[in-house]
Structures are given as structure tokens and as C-alpha cells.
Records
---
Amino acid sequence: MEIVQRAVSGFALDLGPIKEPLGFIRVLEWVFTIFAFATAGGYSGSTHFTVKCPGTAMAVQPKFWYPFRLADSSYSMPTCNGTDVETTYLQGDFRSSAEFFVSVGVFAFLYCTVTLVLYLGYQHVYRQTSRGPLADLVVTGVFAFLWLVSSSAWGKGLTDIKFATNPDHLMGSLEVDHTVEAYASMGRLNASVSETTSMQRRRTLTKILQTEVAMEVTEIFGFLNLILWAGNCWFIYKETHFHKDPNAPAPMQEGDVPGA
């Protein structure tokens, strides 16, 4: 209880650091960190194509979501054999890269919150010794490295997810012979596929491939955070004793005579 009282009594709100690069960049880090883990952790998407059997058509829409364990995502595929429908699952498990990216974002958000409270309410404590800026520099550098690793891993995971959910890949996994005639239209890829099974059944699949912009945004936010955290290292470094001029004259005491 006494520690809490001391912390409250020592709090002195000062918005001055927000006007400096050190505090302003930290606010940007706080905002973009939220965007990074929120867009990745809250993502859900789907891929679409339509299966046309003689006299009937069925829209197939496999759905997937964070943490992208695609084997949990099932969808129904018509067999063009009467009204029979078979249950099929997406393939792939990309939890490791997705959860690592989101975890880095969450811990970075918590660190930004703590340091903003320190900058704005306990600036006198932060600058009292060299240990505060030095520790801040080390942790910020570690997070910059983590953003590099997690964003790169997540970028590779996104590529694999897009391949695993691409209608071309899903149709190619069907045990049929097929030919594809495709043309681009208004940013979408529309294709008609004629397939012949061993029973000489024919069915036409019309695919619609849409760009998953939201997935790309998560990766962009990751690398934006990398730039912010790496750049902020310089401004934190300027607060440490390493940046101070070792030959700077010592402050004069009262009563000292210059040149004496």
C-alpha cells in the first residue's frame, strides 16, 4: 500500500514529451501495434467458387480464420451424383507464424503503454539516472528485432495460406482431368473449367478469385512497426550517457572563477 501511495504522489503529468520525437514516435508505435495484432487476430476470410452439375449449381465457400489451422475448416462439395455432397477440409496449419506475430504485437502494446505512462508521468524518474534510457534502448531494440522476425515469418505464412485457399489449388486437388480457360475482369479472375470423370460425367466450375486485402494489411502494419521501433532506437540512444560528449565541461559551482 505504501508503494502505491509513493507512486501516486510521484506522478506529475507532463505532455511535453509528446512534442518530442521520443514520445511522439512511442505514440505512433502504440497505435500501429494495436492495428497489427488486431487485424491479424481478428481476421476471418473465405474463398469462393461455384460447381455446376447437370441441372443444378452449388456455391462452395470454404471459410478460414485466425489462428489459421485450416484443417478445422470444412466445406461441402457436390459430387454430381444425384444429391450427394461430400465434406472436404482445407489443408495446412499456420498457427505458429500467426500466433507469434500477434504475441509480439500484444507485448509491444503493453510495453508502449508502460513507457508512455513513464514518459508523461514520471519523466523526472526516467531521466534521473542513465539506467532508465539504457534499459528502454535495449528493450526497444529487442522489439525491433522481434518485429523483423515475426513480420517475415508472417509474410511467409500469408503466402502459404493464400496458396492453400486458392481456388486453383482446391480444384487441382480433385481427382479429375480438367482444362482451364481464364480471363481477367475488373480485378477478378473468372474461369470456366470443364472436367471429365472416369464415369464420363462433366461438370463446369466457375471460380471467383478475390484479393484478400485485409491479409496484406496485417503484414504492412508489421513492417511499419519494424521501421518505427528501429528508428526510435536513435532517439532513445540520444537520451543515454553514450551520446553525451565526454569532453563537455563540468557545470560551474557557485563561487568558481572562470580560468582559475
Note: The longest strand covers residues 177-185.
---
Amino acid sequence: MKVEDCETDFPKLPALQKIETYPITGDKNIQMADNSFSDGVPPDSLEAAKNASNTEKLADQVMQNPQVLAALQERLDSVSHTPSSYIETLPKAVKRRINALKQLQVKCAHIEAKFYEEVHDLERKYAALYQPLFDKRREFITGDAEPTDAESEWHSENEEEDKLAGDIKNKAVIAEKEAAAAEEPNPKGIPEFWFTIFRNVDMLSELVQEYDEPILKHLQDIKVKFSDPGQPMSFVLEFHFESNDYFTNSVLTKTYKMKSEPDKADPFSFEGPEIVDCDGCTIDWKKGKNVTVKTIKKKQKHKGRGTVRTITKQVPNDSFFNFFSPLKASGDGESLDEDSEFTLASDFEIGHFFRERIVPRAVLYFTGEAIEDDDNKEPSQPSECKQQ
């Protein structure tokens, strides 16, 4: 489309008749219209006609400006060359072939879904290979086992500098070191290992309240269990606690249900497995120890007698342990409100983070090394965290 082909929308009025000048008494002249404008024409009409003429002249001047023409042409080009507008201009035979390509694309999406199902099977297979290492990790953390000298040997990046400094000072301070070693405390295992990870990771620390901290110090291990072969795709997070004063459960669980198939209504949106729902568990709190609720007192006035009494009631309380009582994804076609959708999406993201990052690389989140690596990477939304 060319600018020259465009019609302006400026208003047009019938051309005015020629205006002539007639002499009158004295040295002054006055412009008078010929017979086309009789004495009954109001001055406003003459002024409007004059303004319209000026507007047309201004429009002609604008349309002759090369910069204006270039800007208009660029705008027209951008409108006329959108993908959808281009597709609409194609012949029916070409559109028919495009539809065939879309059918092929849907079949590709279904093959991709099968690929991810096999990936899930591989994850299950290799999880079994990782588990003996994770079991030993738990033993070292809890103090049930002590690593050998070979197992505890680690070469740090600053090892050479540390060795040189140590050699210089070794002879002078050896006696002092021996005395200090004798007095140095030797706690069992690695105290507050998992609680320290919760504090280090912002995504988790935001959920932890001050009254959650004493409970999380009893956390001894976190495991990931994958669904059995032939079962719907899912994974379970297991939080293992030592005996404590807060609840009787030794294990708290959170199950995340997944789907790896294209949506029938929108198959082209498929990008891999996604978490679609989750289930928590019941926490058997000991009396007066439930941190997920708080007791408030409220005054209540009797309508008939006018007497006032004080009643107590329990209301929800912010706590990490609400993690085990998640919102349910709507399965009846009813949409959740915006806050609920955000809460559910955040829950899915946290579950994915435990599975993909925290559990496999726990020691690096304890030391903070993994957090530094994460900070150096561009943030991305994993496909498995999408909500339907």
C-alpha cells in the first residue's frame, strides 16, 4: 500500500464563488460576494468556509513533506505485513497445505510427549542409582556414620595458598593447634544442615516464620520418589524428621501430579511435562503446637440480653507447614481467582525446585556455592511449573 493511494479524511466544502472588489464612497474598498452569496448568509458560514480552505492547503503541504510520507509508509507497511494478514491473502490451495502442516505439527507434539515419558522412566532408573549416595549423605548429616579420611579429603581452589601458609606457621603453632583441637567442640553430624539450606535459599526463607525454625531444625532428610512404571506421571517429596515436640509424624509428604500430553484445545502450547495438581498430608500436631493456626480472642454481645462475653477461635496462620495443605487445582472447569492462581503456581515452582535443585545438590546450597551459580544464570521458568 502506498501513501499516495490513501485518501485524506479532511472535510471538504463546495468551492466558493469568485470574490470581487467593488468601489464605494471614499478611498476604502470592501469585498462583496457575487450573486451566489446573498445578504442572508451569516458571517459564521463564510469563516467556516475559509477555515476549510486553509485546512486543505495545510493537508496538501503535510502530504508533500518527505519525512511525513516516509513515516506514514512505514506504518502502513507494518500493518500490511503482519503474519496473519499475509496468510489471509494466500490462495485456498495454499491455506489447505498449511492446515496439513499443522496436523503434522500436532503429531510431532504427541511424539514429543512420548519422549518426555521415557525421560521420566530414565529419571526413575537413575534415581535408584543416586539413592545409595543420598543415604550415605544422610548418615553423615545425622552423625550416624563418620566419613573416612579418604571420603573427607577435598581439594579446594585455594589449596596451594593454604598449604604454603600452613607450612610457614606449622612449626611455630603446632602445640597451640593441638591444644585448640582438644578444646574444639565436636558436634554430632552436621547440625541444622537442612534448616541452613532453607535460610540460604530466598524462595524457601520467604515461607519460613520465626516459630517454624525450631521445627525445621529437626529435619534430617528430603527425598524425591518417582511414580512407578505404568502409573500416572508424578513425584513425591518426603521430609524426614527426627522425634520432636511438635508433631508425631516421622515423614511429611507432598505429591505433585504431572501431565505429559498436548492439550486438545491448544496442542501447539505443549513444551514438555507440567505439574497440574498436588496433594499434601495430614500433620498430627501435638496439643498446642500447631503453628499453622493461631488463637484469637473476640468479644461477642448477646442480642437479647445485651451481655458481652469473650470467645476464642482459631484462624489460619502463616507458616512453612501450610506447604502440606495446598490449594487444589480446579478440575471442574471453574477458574481460580488471581491470588489462588499465583499461590498454586508458586507451589508448583517450589516443588520443582526441591526436585531439580535442592535434593540433588544439597551440600552446595548448604555452602552457598549453588546459590552463587544460580545468581549468575539468567532466570527461567521451567516448563514443568506451568499451570493449566
Note: The longest strand covers residues 251-259.
---
Amino acid sequence: MMNAPLKHPLLPLLLLALCAARSTAFVPLMTRHLQQTTTFMTIVSPFDESGESASEDTAVATKPNSIGEGPFDLTWENVEMVLDEMRPYLIQDGGNVIIQEIDGPVVRLELQGACGTCPSSTQTMKMGLERGLKEKIPEIQEVIQAMPEGPPLNEEQVNVILDGVRPFLQVAGGSIECNRLEGVDGLQPAIYLEMKGSSASLNSVKLEIAQRLQKHFMMAGLRVEWIGD
């Protein structure tokens, strides 16, 4: 079934403007290869799932700042040491990671910068950092992503984000309002938004607005719902 044609000639420009105005570029870490520009050496990211190995005749897979095979004891210093081995790949993508807490066999990490707001942050944590830590420190049972504390969830803070997109919507003859908030103190809070005008039919614009709200509040389980959908 084909989508209905856009009703306003400025809607394509609206979407481009919204995407261009984002302050952080979301670059998935899971599929990126970081390669040296030498003939005989290739650096393979620990976040690469391809499983490809370098040819013995042309390259040798390695890692920067190699710390050895382990295993190591579960201590703050050893977790930092293993993370230091993986940090160059995060920094390459504009991010970083810090230890927030070690509670028995559970390590709680906080992704920072572009990594903290990337849609692939859960994959980065589980398939990259957790896998790398467990390989070197077998005592670790689980690695949990710690979310930094964001602003309180209220209509005033919702409008902080909506005010940033309203000028783009108005260009296309549209508008957006916060209809209500639900479950603010619960495990799955929800923001209900109502968009009017031609842009209301663009799911890509709604997705962009939802991502901005989730990035702003940094709340696990936060849902963005649309009146009329």
C-alpha cells in the first residue's frame, strides 16, 4: 500500500531541517570497523559482530593498549583497565564510558557523549562492553547501563523540547501541544502529544520529536504517544 502524497510542498524541507538541527549525530557503534592505515596491521573493534578475521598474509588482528588475556579479579582497577582497552572505539564516535558502581558481580556503567544518546546504546553496552568485560573478568555476571539523572518530567520541561521544533512545524502550517502526562512517578511514564496540520501525517517527524524528548529526560521506560493515532 503506497503512502499518501505529501500535502504541503515544505514538508520535505521540514524533516531535513529537524534532522540537521540535532546537536548529536547518532552513529551506531556495532557495525563500525576502525582500521589503521598501515599495510600489515588492522585494528578490529570489539564492537564488531561480523566475526571476520584478518588474513595471515596481509594483516594481523590486534587491539590497542593490549592488557593480556586474563582472567583478572573483579576489582574497580581491573574493570577500569579493561574499559581503557575499549575506550578508543567509543571516543572515536564521540563518546566515553565511566564506572558508576560495582555491586557484587554486577557492574553499572554510564555511557557518555554520543554513546549515551545513541539508539544503539543498549547493543553497545551488552554486545560490546559487557562481552569484553566478561571475557577478561569472568566473575562479572551482568553489566547494567546507568542512566544519568535528567530534568523532572513535567509540562514545562516538555515544552522546552517542543519550543525547539515548533518553528519548523509552523513553516509547514502545523502545530504541536502537550495534551497530558501519565504515570509520572511510575515505571512507564507517558507523554501524550497532539500534532495538527499537514506534518501530523509524517511518522518520521514524530519519531524525531520522540527521540528528542527521550534524550532530554533520560528516563527508562518513557513513552511518547500521539493523540489521534
Note: The longest helix spans residues 76-92.
